[in-house]
């Protein structure tokens, strides 16, 4: 191992899937140091962007365990009906209930769910499923809405929290919609609204409303929008993992079509 150039090791490891990298970290301290380095992380993310994959998390319905999945991203031109996903399990403390707030470049932001209304502050933590590491963030006021993002210029992760009081809470997802900031508001299975930031300086937003065929989600649990593909398709999936295989949906706004895709757990 010591005779192999570090650059070559980075190149070899970068070709592995996330699940294999997580296992390789446990081989030795040397391998762990290589796979946790900033240089390898940047290389792996760069290669991942050239072979688009879906990274998402599902929660088991009856405990505090999360399952992080990765599988090749499809688009409307592909006819594959199923694929195999790599899975990494991550279980939190039973007395520390958490919920997902956001995702960016391989990291997930989670929030501790307040146990009582009297709690004035709550904790957030960043989780890296590929390494099994997590880090607590400074506490924020209970009721704040937080999200996670990655700054590609400074190459840093940023957490944005807002304490704005909303008259009504909706399920929202921040996405890259055709190169612009988009906010998906998911009010029910048949109705979706996408707000797109057209001009940041003028705070100019455009609104796009869509009606989805409700019968496509028959036999599934609660569904949520998780991201937008490079071709503009909105990816929807179930919030809770109940059995395998499970379904992922691709909604094409311009065509108003939804494709159901079956995912096997490898």
TrEMBL record:
Domain F-box per the UniProt entry, residue ranges: 1-47
InterPro entries linked: F-box-assoc_dom_typ3 (IPR013187), F-box-assoc_interact_dom (IPR017451), F-box-like_dom_sf (IPR036047), F-box_dom (IPR001810)
Record SMART domains: FBOX (SM00256)
Protein name: F-box protein At1g30925
Source organism (scientific name): Raphanus sativus
């Amino acid at each position: 191992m010591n005779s192999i150039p570090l650059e070559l090791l980075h190149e070899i490891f970068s070709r592995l899937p996330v699940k294999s990298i997580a296992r390789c970290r446990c081989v030795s301290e040397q391998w762990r140091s290589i796979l946790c380095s900033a240089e390898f992380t940047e290389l792996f993310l760069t290669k991942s962007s050239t072979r688009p994959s879906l990274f998402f998390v599902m929660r088991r319905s009856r405990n505090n365990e999360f399952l992080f999945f990765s599988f090749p991203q499809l688009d409307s031109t592909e006819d594959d009906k199923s694929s195999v996903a790599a899975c990494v399990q991550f279980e939190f403390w039973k007395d520390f209930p958490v919920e997902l707030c956001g995702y960016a470049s391989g990291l997930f932001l989670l929030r501790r769910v307040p146990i009582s209304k009297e709690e004035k502050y709550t904790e957030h933590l960043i989780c890296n499923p590929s390494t099994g590491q997590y880090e607590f963030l400074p506490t924020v006021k209970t009721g704040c809405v937080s999200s996670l993002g990655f700054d590609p210029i400074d190459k840093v992760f940023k957490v944005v929290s807002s304490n704005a009081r909303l008259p009504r809470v909706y399920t929202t997802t921040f996405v890259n919609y055709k190169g612009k900031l988009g906010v998906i508001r998911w009010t029910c299975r048949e109705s979706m609204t996408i707000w797109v930031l057209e001009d940041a300086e003028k705070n100019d937003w455009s609104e796009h409303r869509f009606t989805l065929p409700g019968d496509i989600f028959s036999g599934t649990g609660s569904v949520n929008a998780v991201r937008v593909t490079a071709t503009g398709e909105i990816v929807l999936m179930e919030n809770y993992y109940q059995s395998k295989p499970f379904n992922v949906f691709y909604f094409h706004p311009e065509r108003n079509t939804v494709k159901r895709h079956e995912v096997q757990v490898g």
